[in-house]
Specification:
The chain is of the alpha/beta class and about 475 residues long. The chain is built from 16 helices and 20 strands. Pfam families: Aldedh. InterPro entries: Ald_DH/histidinol_DH, Ald_DH_C, Ald_DH_CS_GLU, Ald_DH_N, Aldehyde_DH_dom, LUC3-like.
Length: about 475
């Protein structure tokens, strides 16, 4: 590649098309997503059908052999060039992300910044052949070979980070990749595909937009070798069932109901400032947000009062509001689900520490809900048992270590969990008893392109990112070489 070639500049206000074989591809029918801050319709996007899937898979399958044979270092250079091209179009992507996801500026900037860093750091990773035995007679080793055509099915909450977080490892390991964005947030994906079409060889990276029928077309296609899905547990089960008929490789990163356990020896003023944002970031619409907060009874009242003050400081505003920390719920379907959970406040007589049931207003547009804390509800309450995926969470008391571990683990979910204490050894010992794919001490939700990310139990199968994530895009191959025969 010629590094001096001008980087592509993309129009982010029109012409949203599928990317198939490095060309813009329209469909007879289109659909429109909604700006969650205003409830206004956004731009028309393709409504892909079986024929579009077939065309994209054919292009990906044709591109695979040559791409597989490109060296790791050369594939990494393509990825780095792609990252540079994305950065050259960052302002347009940011405006689009704020519209489709309802993200305040700080959140949109953060997602794009982390996504770019993730892509560039992923390009540094390598899967090397592992030599098991090497004698005069023979050599035995383990290799990791790309599976072929891969698909990333991306959710609506972090459409750029989670999309690029699948694309990078997939193409670095020699696979071709089809990106299927959520129907609720297709816009940034289509434009990232448009950028990719000017960087990668034809068929290596493609993007298909559609409605809820598109996913089943992909999971059923016999020439697709792997599905990497991020989304709800309920949908993940359907994806797993659909992939079984063709024995597709599969990675599922599903829902979470993350617990955080706070000991009585913490600096309350400092910890509430950290936990507040980790519970309410993106209005609670992150799988690894803190969803259940267990605070030791000795500091419970002080801690809750401090946390309430932190949450009261969060400004709620629409996408693009420079002062907002919390935006709207991203779509009408999720808005209805979270509102239903809010309606339990009065029915169950939950004690509200801050926030409460929303007041309906015909004049106010947008899927906004007040950030809400429920004070020590029963453990069998919906707010404790279910993942809200909205700006509402319970704070609960605990006193006994064994008991709080049992309560934290008493869920089908197992994505993340954290422990907070000034005694690091004690906190780490407790954290290791928690049933989750990621555990943290004195933080929550830390991520790195070098560290795998995924869940236990109903929170997923397999992991993304890091060396573990790269292996998930490969078949393991045992290699035997007889030197004398």
């Amino acid at each position: 590649m010629d590094s001096t070639t001008d980087l592509p500049k993309i129009d982010f206000t029109s012409n949203f098309q599928n990317i198939i074989g490095n060309a813009l591809s329209s469909t007879p029918e289109t659909r429109q997503a909604v700006d969650p801050s205003t409830e206004e319709l956004l731009y028309p996007v393709p409504l892909s059908k079986q024929s579009d899937v077939d065309n994209a898979v054919s292009a990906a399958k044709a591109a695979f052999p040559a791409w597989r044979d490109v060296s790791y270092d050369e594939r990494a250079q393509y990825i780095l060039r792609y990252a540079d091209a994305i950065e050259a179009n960052l302002s347009g992507l940011q405006e689009l992300l704020m519209k489709e996801a309802g993200k305040p500026i700080s959140n949109a900037t953060g997602e794009l910044g982390f996504a770019l860093a993730h892509l560039r750091e992923t390009a540094k990773l390598r899967l090397k052949e592992e030599v098991i035995e090497d004698t005069e007679e023979r050599k035995a080793s383990v290799r990791y070979v790309p599976v072929g055509v891969g698909v990333g099915i991306i959710p609506w909450n972090y459409p750029v980070l989670l999309g690029l977080g699948k694309l990078g490892p997939a193409v670095l390991t020699g696979n071709t990749f089809i990106w299927k964005p959520s129907p609720y947030s297709p816009y940034t994906a289509l434009k990232l595909g448009e950028i990719a079409a000017q960087i990668f060889p034809s068929g290596v990276v493609q993007v298909l937009s559609g409605d809820e029928s598109l996913g089943p077309f992909l999971t059923a296609h016999p020439d697709i070798a792997k599905i990497s899905f991020t989304g709800s547990t309920a949908t993940g089960k359907k994806v797993m069932q659909a992939c079984a008929s063709t024995l597709k490789r599969l990675t599922l990163e599903l829902g979470g109901n993350d617990a955080a356990i706070v000991y009585d020896d913490v600096d309350v003023g400092k910890v509430v400032q950290k936990i507040g944002p980790m519970a309410f970031m993106h209005s609670g619409q992150i799988c690894m947000d803190i969803k259940r907060l267990y605070v030791h009874e000795k500091i419970y009242d002080e801690f809750l009062a401090g946390l309430v003050q932190v949450v009261k400081s969060f400004k709620v505003g629409g996408g693009g509001d420079p002062d907002a920390f919390l935006g709207p719920v991203q779509n009408s379907m999720q808005f209805a689900k979270v509102k239903d959970l809010y309606s339990e406040i009065g029915k169950q007589n939950w004690q509200v520490a801050v926030g409460g049931e929303p007041v309906a207003s015909e004049s106010k547009k947008g899927f906004f809900l007040p950030p809400t804390i429920i004070d020590n509800p029963p453990d069998d309450s919906r707010i404790v048992v279910e993942e809200p995926f909205g700006p509402i969470m319970p704070v609960l008391k605990w006193s006994d270590e064994d008991e709080v571990v049992k309560r934290a683990n008493n869920t089908n979910m197992g994505l993340g969990a954290s422990v907070w204490s000034n005694d690091i050894a004690k906190a780490e010992k407790l954290a290791r008893r928690l049933e989750a794919g990621s555990i943290w001490v004195n933080s929550h939700f830390e991520l790195s392109p070098y560290v795998p990310f995924g869940g236990h139990k109903w929170s997923g199968v397999g992991m993304d990112w890091g060396i573990v994530g790269l292996k998930g895009w490969c078949n393991t191959q045992a290699s035997w070489v007889r030197k004398t025969f």
